[in-house]
Every structure is written in structure tokens, then in C-alpha cells.
Amino acid sequence: MEPQQVEFKKSTAREYFESIVITAIIALFATTFVVQAFKIPTGSMESNLLIGDHLLVNKFAYGQYSGPLAKILPYKELKRGDVIVFKYPNSPEVAYVKRLIGLPGEKVEMVGRTVYINDKPLQENYTQYIESTSLYDRYGPFYVPEGKYFAMGDNRDNSQDSRFWGYVPRDHIVGKALAIYWSYETPRDEYLQTNLSDRLKQFADVFLNFFTKTRWSRTLKVIR
């Protein structure tokens, strides 16, 4: 007599639960190792990145993996001109976004509106100046130590960056800014409004004005 085969059928609730768990695990892996969302809170990167731009950050870009797969993984070296997201050295729980200007071992100096790398002028087509007196500002020279980087905002007259608080350690760099996935008109002081009442007002504003205040032309814009 042949043994009877018993079929086990998952309940619909269990299937949904397993799907949710798997999705959550994939999402956790992605946000931990691959990509992270970041919102621009200030005008330090204007006019390339605006307050209210929501970015996708590639956390995979600058990996330091040294195993046998290192040659085939798409890791890149940090290079001048990259827009990077990093932990603010003086308060690592806060994320900053700036442009990478100085590499380890380099001399960085800013005279007027020109940045010099090892005494050679740097050609920049992404900067913005709003103060006429900035022409006479001078910063440096700074000598970038090994394992650290010099970062500056594109809006040079309104950016707290390496000119004022020093260098960015390599292990503080989270990743490279990739693209804007959503941009929403946001007040300049919103990042200071952090209590519950303010948060509820911000949520209500997005709910009521999503279509009219979304900057549709910036959606999916690649960051250069």
C-alpha cells in the first residue's frame, strides 16, 4: 500500500506575513548598505541643490571591501567634484552634503572667488556667490591630512564647511549623492522647526499642496 501524500497549504494570512517580512529584510539591507534617502535642509549647495530636494545617496559607491570580489564590485575612488554625504565631524549624528574639493595630501587655499589646489587654480562651474564682499575673502592655506578630505558648499557665501570646522574623516563619508527623487518648496527655516506641532503642520502642508508645491522639473534629476 503506497503512503499517502499530504499537501500542506499555507494560509493567506501567513503568505502575506512572509511577504512583508521578506520585503522588510530587503528594504533594510538596501537602506543599510546600498541606498539612503537624504533631504536638503539649508541653502549651502544652491543653486545646484535646493532646500526641499530629496536625494538618493549611493552608500555602495565608496566601499572599502578588500576581499576576493573587490575587483568586480563597482566601488569607486573618491574624486574631486563629487557631491558627498557625510557625518558632520563635530556632531556625527547629523548628516551634511557638500562637494569634495581637497584630497589627502593636498594644499587647499581660497583667494577671492578662486580655489587653489597645490597652488593651481581650480576651474569650477557650479559655485554661487551672493555677497559682493566675498571677492576679498581669503581662506587657508589648508593642508589636508592623510585619510581626510576637504569639503565645501557650492553656495560659498552661505556654507559652513571645511573652511570653518576642518576636515572630513574617510570613515565619516556615507556615500555619493546620485539623484533627486522628489523636490518640494520648503521654507528656509523649516529645519529649525522640530517640535510635534511643527511636524504636524509640515505634514499637513505636504498633504494639501503636494501637486502645487512639488518642483516637478527637478524630479529624477541626476546630481552633477
SSE arrangement:
Blueprint: H1 12-34, E1 35-39, E2 53-58, E3 83-87, E4 95-102, E5 107-111, E6 114-117, E7 120-121, E8 138-143, E9 148-152, H2 162-165, E10 168-169, E11 173-183, H3 196-213, E12 221-222
Antiparallel strand pairs: 1-2, 2-11, 3-4, 3-11, 4-9, 5-6, 5-8, 6-7, 9-10, 11-12
**Second CATH tier, the architecture:** Ribbon
Judged by helices, strands and strand pairing, the structural class is alpha+beta
CATH H-level homologous superfamily name: Umud Fragment, subunit A
Q: Show unreliable segments.
A: 26-32
Distance between the amino and carboxyl termini = 73 Å
**Strand percent estimate:** 25-35%
Helicity level: 10-25%
Description of the molecule:
The protein has 224 residues and is α+β, with helices and mostly antiparallel strands. The chain has one domain (35-222): Umud Fragment, subunit A. Helices cover 20% and strands 27% of the residues. The protein is built from 3 helices and 12 strands, in the order H-E-E-E-E-E-E-E-E-E-H-E-E-H-E. The protein has helices at residues 12-34, 162-165, 196-213; strands at 35-39, 53-58, 83-87, 95-102, 107-111, 114-117, 120-121, 138-143, 148-152, 168-169, 173-183, 221-222. Strands 1, 2, 3, 4, 9, 10, 11 and 12 form an 8-stranded antiparallel sheet that branches. Strand 5 and strand 6 form a beta hairpin. The longest helix is centred in the first third of the chain and has 23 residues, at 12-34. It is globular, with a radius of gyration of 23 Å. The N and C termini lie far apart (73 Å).
